[in-house]
């Protein structure tokens, strides 16, 4: 019996729960997979790549393939012929960048002589070096006030506790940890014996749905996502905007799974109510469980994240370098990881210790921002906004629905988010509102800036004033 084409997709999902992202991107994603009666054939872009896969990842791939297929699968590695190589130069660049990240993540311990002997038989595998990029598990997820609710809710779902939390909707901006938690849920579910856990992006779900219509294989599609599914983890549901047919199918799929008691985890970059072009029934179904928002990490959480990632990679960050990174990076967790990889790789390649000079160079390449700039407090930003409009902080915090005051309050929340290190809860409290109101106000301003020129002028003028205050 031939193995289905979806076998490799399932193997990728399982590997995504076990391997660090840089290893997956550098070594697994470049593989071209074909299924057939004999098993799984993986074509590697080079002989060196094939040797690396055989030495380090082949056993794991075979195990995941057997778990996905329900029976042993023969995995054959081949070198991709030159004529079958992908023609895109961008793909080659992406692969090279991914390989560089992998080398940095492994603290540049790869043997250079291995490249020269790529066509010779692979040497016995050496013990794997410690990874600078942490695997996506609950133990490696650093918890703080910005993400505690999301982490605890995801852990409860993975343990099949707290039945009312179904579905769980994780929402955050890019790079703040929702994918980490989604993969941790899948990994924990697999460890607890739920082998038929479907982890997928909304784009992949759409592609499979359209392919099943084209191939007249809806029975197989529904069996995969309904009858045979013990848990569904679906990422980036905002991709479904205006895809009416896919939305209808997902609505019925979610209804079937939730009614059957199957746990569902969804992720998105905005709240279900704020996703434009979403069917009201699907929006209601997505928000019927628990919606947990992940905020940008504050200074304390950024410090713990950097320490955790550096310690896992066997790197010691001097305290002054750690302080500089914490002060300079106020964005996503992905930004923190990117600077750390840049810093560790530079230190290893240059054969020098990590110091302030090297840290400033890494910051300039990844996040060029003057580290001497001070972080303003919420009160300073609010006073700057009220002085600009000729009103008072008390007026903005008052319970009034006047349109002019409402617009000024929303603008103040947006600027507080940009120029302070305060969590969203503190910003909302300072202006007499709750957390959801502040989050919604910030999104409204972000959209309005693109559409209304007068608002852009106001934001530019206020930003100039705040920049002068920040620089002292």
Short description:
The chain has 472 residues and is α/β, with parallel strands linked by helices. Helix content is 56%, strand content 8%.
Task: Please supply descriptive tags for the structure shown above.
472 residues; alpha/beta; GMP Synthetase, Chain A, domain 3; Rossmann fold; Helicase, Ruva Protein, domain 3; 4 domains; 8 strands
Topology:
Blueprint: H1 7-18, H2 21-28, E1 32-36, E2 39-44, H3 47-69, E3 75-79, H4 89-105, H5 113-116, H6 148-158, E4 168-171, H7 178-191, E5 197-201, H8 202-215, H9 218-227, E6 231-235, H10 244-259, E7 263-268, H11 280-286, E8 290-293, H12 299-312, H13 319-328, H14 333-350, H15 356-366, H16 378-389, H17 393-397, H18 403-419, H19 424-430, H20 435-451, H21 453-470
Parallel strand pairs: 2-3, 4-7, 4-8, 5-6, 6-7
Antiparallel strand pairs: 1-2
Structure in words:
With about 475 residues, the chain is α/β, with parallel strands linked by helices. It has 4 domains: about 5-115, GMP Synthetase, Chain A, domain 3 (2-Layer Sandwich); about 150-295, P-loop containing nucleotide triphosphate hydrolases (Rossmann fold); about 300-365, Helicase, Ruva Protein, domain 3 (Orthogonal Bundle), CATH 1.10.8.60; about 380-470, Chromosomal Replication Initiator Protein Dnaa, Chain: A, CATH 1.10.1750.10. It has 21 helices and 8 strands. The strands form 2 sheets. Strands 5-6-7-4-8 form a 5-stranded parallel sheet, sandwiched between helices. A 3-stranded mixed sheet has the order 1-2-3, covered by helices on one side.
């Amino acid at each position: 019996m031939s193995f289905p084409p979806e076998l490799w997709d399932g193997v990728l999902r399982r590997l995504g729960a076990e391997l660090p992202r840089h290893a997956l991107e550098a070594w697994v994603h470049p593989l071209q997979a074909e299924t057939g009666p004999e098993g799984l054939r993986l074509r590697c872009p080079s002989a060196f790549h094939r040797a690396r896969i055989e030495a380090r990842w082949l056993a794991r791939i075979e195990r995941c393939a057997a778990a996905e297929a329900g029976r042993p699968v023969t995995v054959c590695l081949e070198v991709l012929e030159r004529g079958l190589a992908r023609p895109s130069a961008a793909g080659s660049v992406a692969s090279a960048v991914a390989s560089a990240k992998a080398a940095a993540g492994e603290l540049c311990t790869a043997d250079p002589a291995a490249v020269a002997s790529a066509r010779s038989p692979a040497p016995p595998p050496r013990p794997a070096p410690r990874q600078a990029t942490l695997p996506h598990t609950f133990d490696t997820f650093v918890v703080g006030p910005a993400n505690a609710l999301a982490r605890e809710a995801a852990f409860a779902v993975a343990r099949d506790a707290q039945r009312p939390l179904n579905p769980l909707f994780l929402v955050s901006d890019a790079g703040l940890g929702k994918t980490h938690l989604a993969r941790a849920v899948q990994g924990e579910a697999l460890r607890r014996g739920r082998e038929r856990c479907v982890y997928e992006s909304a784009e992949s779900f759409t592609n499979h749905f359209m392919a099943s219509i084209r191939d007249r294989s809806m029975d197989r599609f529904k069996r995969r996502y309904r009858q045979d599914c013990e848990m569904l983890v679906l990422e980036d549901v905002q991709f479904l905007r205006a895809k009416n047919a896919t939305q209808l199918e997902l609505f019925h799929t979610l209804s079937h799974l939730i009614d059957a008691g199957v746990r569902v985890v969804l992720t998105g970059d905005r709240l279900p109510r704020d996703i434009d072009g979403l069917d009201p029934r699907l929006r209601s179904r997505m928000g019927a469980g628990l919606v947990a928002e992940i905020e940008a990490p504050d200074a304390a959480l950024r410090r713990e994240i950097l320490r955790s990632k550096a310690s896992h990679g066997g790197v010691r960050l001097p305290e002054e370098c750690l302080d500089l990174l914490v002060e300079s990076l106020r964005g996503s967790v992905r930004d923190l990881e990117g600077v750390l990889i840049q810093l560790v790789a530079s230190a290893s390649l240059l054969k020098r210790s990590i110091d302030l000079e090297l840290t400033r160079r890494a910051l300039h390449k990844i996040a060029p921002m003057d580290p001497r700039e001070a972080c303003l407090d919420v009160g300073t930003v609010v006073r700057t906004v009220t002085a600009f409009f000729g009103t008072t902080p008390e007026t903005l915090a008052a319970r009034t629905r006047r349109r002019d005051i409402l617009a000024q309050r929303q603008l103040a929340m947006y600027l507080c988010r940009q120029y302070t290190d305060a969590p969203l809860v503190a910003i909302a409290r300072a202006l007499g509102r709750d957390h959801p109101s502040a989050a919604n106000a910030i999104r409204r301003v972000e959209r309005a800036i693109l559409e209304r020129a007068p608002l852009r002028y106001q934001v530019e003028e206020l930003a100039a004033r705040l920049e002068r205050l920040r620089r002292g």
